Amino acid sequence: MAAIVDIRDLRKVYSGGFEALKGVSLSIEEGEILALLGPNGAGKTTLISTICGITNPSSGQVLVGGHDVVKDYRGARAIIGLVPQEISLEPFTKVKDTVAFSRGLFGKPRDDAAIEKILKQLSLWDKRNARTVELSGGMKRRVLIAKALSHDPKVLFLDEPTAGVDVELRKDMWDVVAELKALGVTIILTTHYIEEAEAIADRVGVINGGQLLLVEEKDALMQRLGQKTLQIELSESVTEIPAALAAYDLDLVKDGSALRYTYDTRAESTGITRLLAAISEAGLHLRDLQTQQSSLEDIFVGLVKEGAA
Hints:
Protein name: ABC-2 type transport system ATP-binding protein
Domain ABC transporter: 5-234
Order of helices and strands: EEEHEEHEHHHEHEHEEHEEEHEH
Number of helices: 10
InterPro entries: AAA+_ATPase, ABC_transporter-like_ATP-bd, ABC_transporter-like_CS, ABC_transporter_ATP-binding, P-loop_NTPase
Shape: elongated
Mean pLDDT: 88
CATH class of the largest domain: Alpha Beta
Number of domains: 2
Distance between the termini: 35 Å
CATH architecture of the largest domain: 3-Layer(aba) Sandwich
Strand content: 25-35%
Keywords: ATP-binding, Nucleotide-binding, Transport
Number of strands: 14
GO molecular function: ATP binding; ATP hydrolysis activity
Radius of gyration: 25 Å
Largest sheet: 6 strands, mixed
Structural class: alpha/beta
């Protein structure tokens, strides 16, 4: 598929000399969901702000739908929807009016049917006449998304969209994002919730210190970097790993009642069969076996540590 967002060697240096973005290059395909993961201060919000024209880049180029975000700001911004981290809404304006007003800001003609469609899509139709001050935090987040969608953008940026939202509402928001993708909207989200990226993203980008450490399809990333651990429960506890098992990557856990073996899922052979035979030959007796796959969070933490090294 064609790239709808094309970022080329993007750099941002603030007046004090702080380099927030250090040569970021990234292509985002039309219709995909890309999750950007990174700790506080990693550069996620700066990257989104630069793409959306809120912050000017120090160097490099960003194209959105073929429009340069600096040279053709209006053309680029017309196809971008942005949901910021902060909830900033006029408290005493009705939901339907605040969404309609946002549509007007982009020069779009009044379209009550379009506003109704967006509000129903986001389960806000029943709240259309409510003032925003009366809404819960989760509903206010939905209003922000409705405002961002009011001018029919092709690209939607969600900057920490579920921050401060409880688990149930967070999962509801994931459903909303999935529905938007089904409609062909390209979605880029930043998040601190690893499970959010794992649940809904097509690709995952890891950013830290203003540098993009990795961008890869989520499933491929899990397969390439994920490790599995085999926990071998023993019938009787031991105080140390037998010398005959020294060749294997084993750790003694659970006060000596289990052995933990870590292996690479990419390897042609896991070595488990040989290990189990060696354990038996060493005179140890198995009680149970358990395997565990590395989560995206484990991978993320490892990548950030590598980037900081």
